[in-house]
């Protein structure tokens, strides 16, 4: 079932390696199976809009089948009964296998998602491995406490897995988001049913095959591709899923929470949208600030929930900043993501592409100043020019709503207090950043801004040791490392009488 160790490129020697697509069916109970309906859907190449392949279209009945397998694997299978050390060993092996298949996975990710191959290979897979090895290392280090109680009793707290968990994954970092949910769920001893995004199902299926090869038992990990309102909704509302993790839009997050509440009141972890402020102060090193702003917004074609999409620039340096920011954006290399020099590939699909172009039109219509870009790039696929708007006002649509594309908004401010106040007007609160040489200014901002992550003089720096998650409508619950493992466990209190023992 799993790919051969020596699977090799069958390409034509161009910059685009070619691998056959091996896995397109649902992965349930350790086997690749068709959807019960027999239906399939097409996954498209964002460079051209052409079909890559057809994938099994799972629905509620397939999710149910996967949940039954996951339930049996939890109630009767070895995974939750293994020691943490034994589970960790399997997960380390899983990481090694993923590392050995880096090129093929990176190829599939770029093909399905459109992100630069160098990003898939040197950022996304590296992130996957860090996540998996981190949680594998925690698997044998989770322990509760003992309590001296107010009476002749002994109290203990015990961390236990929830049971069957569900995960609904977005398309912007398909492999990484998969592992941020699957790694900790498995390390904690849960079993899991994953619904990848319909735009990007291919790497999740490949990762399922590698999980089997690593020795993760049948039923412990199941992957059911399909659409949100059908397969995704079935995960959120399933009566026998005990916890669900979701990364995606705030709008869908609300639907998932409602479905979770109305079914079996399963706890949810929601990592949702953002409209993150980046504040550039007048004392900043201008070139460094421009680099930070460029990375903050244009990284991953702007398709990041943490994108620095509201760039507040102090009025005294505004014009100088604009000149350099525009110059840098114009130099950005847009094109085929398999070419090593390309920094920006296509947006993931036609829906996103059109939505972003509509936001650009609304920016123009509401009076923002288009400084560069503003159009589709090329005449094929879903490429958009790196775009910058100046003189953006807080009440404009492009300053309020998540665009999820390569569109930077520059807003002018006078004082730090004003910047903090305006930064906090957003309903979102995922991330925020400040560029300043003054540590007091930076600290004041960091403590005043309502966001789950604050970067000072940097952006998009993540680590498994740091909690990741949102404030306000950007969601709740924390991911990464131990934070994520504990969010996949529930805490039990156990009490025993101390009959003939001294209770000192
Ligand atoms: P985006 O708008 O960026 O595509 P979404 O929040 O719509 O992000 O999608 C993220 C994930 O949520 C995808 O796997 C998608 O299939 C799923 N999804 C979309 N709608 C629903 C829904 N009603 N119920 C459950 N999952 C959904």
UniProtKB/TrEMBL annotation:
Database matches in PROSITE patterns: ALDEHYDE_DEHYDR_CYS, ALDEHYDE_DEHYDR_GLU
Active site residues per record: 271
Keywords: NAD, Oxidoreductase
InterPro entries associated with the record: Ald_DH/histidinol_DH, Ald_DH_C, Ald_DH_CS_CYS, Ald_DH_CS_GLU, Ald_DH_N, Aldehyde_DH_dom
Superkingdom to which the source organism belongs: Eukaryota
One GO MF term attached to the UniProt entry: aldehyde dehydrogenase (NAD+) activity
Aldehyde dehydrogenase domain mapped to chain residues: 33-494
Pfam family of the protein (one): Aldedh
Gene Ontology process terms (BP): carboxylic acid metabolic process
GO annotations of cellular component type: mitochondrion
Family, similarity comment: Belongs to the aldehyde dehydrogenase family.
Protein name: Aldehyde dehydrogenase domain-containing protein
């Amino acid at each position: 079932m799993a790919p051969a160790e020596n699977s090799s490129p069958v390409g034509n020697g161009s910059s685009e390696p070619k691998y056959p697509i091996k896995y397109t069916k649902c992965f349930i109970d350790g086997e690749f199976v068709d959807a019960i309906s027999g239906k399939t859907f097409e996954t498209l190449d964002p460079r051209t809009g052409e079909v890559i392949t057809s994938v099994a279209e799972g629905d509620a009945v397939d999710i149910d089948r996967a949940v039954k397998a996951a339930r049996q694997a939890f109630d009767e299978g070895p995974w939750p009964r293994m020691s943490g050390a034994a589970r960790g060993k399997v997960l380390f092996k899983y990481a090694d296998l993923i590392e050995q298949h880096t090129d093929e996975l990176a190829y599939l990710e770029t093909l399905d998602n459109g992100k630069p191959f160098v990003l898939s290979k040197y950022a996304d897979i590296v992130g996957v491995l860090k996540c998996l090895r981190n949680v594998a290392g925690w698997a044998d280090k989770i322990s509760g406490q003992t309590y001296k109680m107010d009476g002749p009793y002994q109290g203990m707290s015990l961390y236990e897995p929830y049971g069957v968990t569900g995960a609904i994954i977005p398309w912007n970092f398909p492999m990484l988001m998969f592992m941020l949910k699957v790694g900790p769920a498995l390390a904690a001893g849960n079993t899991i049913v994953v619904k990848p995004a319909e735009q990007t199902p291919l790497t999740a299926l490949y990762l399922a095959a590698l999980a089997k090869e690593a020795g993760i038992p049948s039923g412990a990990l199941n992957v059911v591709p399909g659409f949100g309102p059908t397969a995704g909704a079935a995960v959120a509302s399933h009566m026998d899923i005990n916890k669900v993790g979701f990364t995606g839009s705030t709008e869908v997050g609300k639907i998932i929470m409602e479905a979770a509440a109305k079914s079996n009141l399963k706890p949810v972890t929601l990592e949702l949208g953002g409209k993150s402020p980046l504040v550039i102060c007048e004392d900043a090193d201008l070139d460094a600030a421009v680099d930070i702003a460029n990375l903050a917004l244009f990284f991953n074609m702007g398709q990041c929930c943490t994108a620095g999409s509201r760039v507040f620039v102090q009025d005294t340096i505004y014009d100088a900043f604009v000149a350099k920011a525009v110059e840098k954006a114009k130099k950005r290399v847009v094109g085929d993501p398999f070419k090593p020099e390309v920094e920006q590939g296509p947006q993931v699909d036609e829906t996103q592409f059109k939505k972003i172009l509509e936001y650009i039109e609304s920016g123009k219509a509401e009076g923002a100043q288009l400084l560069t870009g503003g159009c589709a790039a090329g005449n094929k696929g879903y490429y958009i020019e790196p775009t910058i708007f100046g003189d953006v006002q807080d009440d404009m649509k492009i300053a309020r709503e998540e665009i999820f594309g390569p569109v930077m908004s520059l807003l002018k401010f006078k004082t730090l207090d004003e910047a903090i106040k305006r930064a906090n007007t957003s309903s979102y609160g995922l991330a925020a950043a400040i560029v300043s040489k003054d540590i007091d200014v930076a600290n004041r901002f960091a403590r005043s801004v309502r966001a789950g992550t604050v970067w000072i003089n940097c952006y998009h720096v993540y680590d498994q040791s740091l909690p990741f998650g949102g404030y306000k409508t950007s969601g709740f619950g924390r991911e990464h490392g131990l934070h994520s493992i504990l969010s996949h466990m529930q805490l039990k209190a156990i009490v025993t009488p101390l009959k003939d023992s001294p209770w000192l």
